[in-house]
Amino acid sequence: MMQLINILGVFCNMDFVEEAKKVFDIEIDALKRVRDNLNGNISQIIKIISECKGKVIVTGIGKSGHIARKIAATMASLGTPSFFLHPAEALHGDLGMVREDDIVFAISYSGESEEITRMLGNIKAIGATLIGISGNAESTLVEYSDYVQVLPKFSEACYLKLAPTTSTTATLVYGDAVAVVASKIYGFNKNNYGLYHPAGSLGKKLFIKVKDVMATEENNAVIYSGLTLKNAIVEMGKKGLGIITIIDKNNSLLGVVTDGDLRRQLEKGVDVYGLIVDDIMTKTPITISQEGMAIEALQLLKEKNVSSAPVVDEHQKIVGTIRLRDILNKGIVL
């Protein structure tokens, strides 16, 4: 009971915001220390990674393992072929993934994690380059490594000074710095980034074309010139696009009729069933190339304040219809 009372007393008296700020302050100070102590070691590490002919294999155990996964993912995301290797799995056959032209980027703040130290001799025997990231200059990891970054000694942000917090943050940011600068060396650009992130927003903007989004063939509403507006209404109802394209016998665009055009005629009291499509069609609608980018089509539709437009090929023949809604549904936004 007394223990519960003590816990409640601490809880009631604690300023959570101030306690959280202390964690920020401790970790920010640690990052500044790492930054201010950077030297030629990081230059060597960045250079060797940017020149790597194989893959960068990042490894670590425990909390360092989680950081290693993130660093490997960041490197791969920024164009450095990289993957995470779990030390325990490495000791049971996965060292076969390592080749002579690879780099092993090993993380252990103590430098003495058993799962790490047990595979160091094998890595050297394979002939791979070993980069060691540690907070212990006298450690086994540092001793075996070809390139080393010794991080300063940190006070962990955990109030027990035990849980890896400050040290993992510092290691993560160090890995980010290496990955970002290495990518800059070999000219990694937005197109490269989009290529590796096809499901991401940038990837969609850079690589999804109009032809990937548009309604085509049986889903596209098309009618020949000279047919009645009744025919157009039936066809529009079947396709549900809110627009129908009027073409001639050569499949060339003559105009479009939208559901908005129909509404306006009805509001005027016009007998729409007595008209042909040519009577109310817009004769010079905007058109969009099927080879254009979907993001450019979205921008044009918004600029013209229309929700859809006919799509043409290189010969200006109708091949489909693009709708603003379909572009947005692909996750493409301005």
Helix content: 40-55%
Strand content: 15-25%
What name goes with the CATH superfamily of the largest domain? Glucose-6-phosphate isomerase like protein, domain 1
Q: Which secondary-structure class do the elements indicate?
A: alpha/beta
**Overall pLDDT confidence:** 93
Q: Classify the fold: give the CATH topology of the largest domain.
A: Rossmann fold
> Between the first and last Cα atoms, what is the distance in angstroms?
59 Å
Rg: 31 Å
Topology order in helix (H) and strand (E) letters = HHHEHEHEHEHEHHHEHEEHHEHEEH
Classified by CATH, the class of the largest domain is Alpha Beta
Overall number of domains: 2
Assign an overall shape: elongated
Largest sheet: 5 strands, parallel
Strand order of the largest sheet: 2-1-3-4-5
Number of strands: 11
List the helices and strands and how they pair.
Blueprint lengths: L1 H12 L2 H21 L3 H11 L5 E5 L2 H15 L4 E4 L1 H4 L12 E5 L6 H13 L2 E6 L5 H5 L2 E4 L15 H20 L4 H7 L4 H7 L14 E3 L4 H11 L3 E5 L5 E6 H9 L9 H4 L7 E2 L4 H11 L3 E5 L5 E6 H6 L5
Task: Kindly describe this structure.
- The chain is of the alpha/beta class and 334 residues long.
- It has two domains: 23-188, Rossmann fold (3-Layer(aba) Sandwich), CATH 3.40.50; 210-329, CBS-domain (Roll), CATH 3.10.580.
- The chain contains 15 helices and eleven strands.
- It has helices at residues 2-13, 16-36, 40-50, 63-77, 87-90, 114-126, 140-144, 166-185, 190-196, 201-207, 229-239, 259-267, 277-280, 294-304, 324-329, and strands at residues 56-60, 82-85, 103-107, 129-134, 147-150, 222-224, 243-247, 253-258, 288-289, 308-312, 318-323.
- A five-stranded parallel beta sheet has the order 2-1-3-4-5, with helices on both faces. A three-stranded mixed beta sheet has the order 6-7-8. Strands 9-10-11 form a three-stranded mixed beta sheet.
- Helix 3 (40-50) crosses helix 8 (166-185) and helix 9 (190-196) packs across helix 10 (201-207).
- The radius of gyration is 31 Å and the shape is elongated.
- The protein starts with a helix and ends in a 5-residue tail after the last helix.
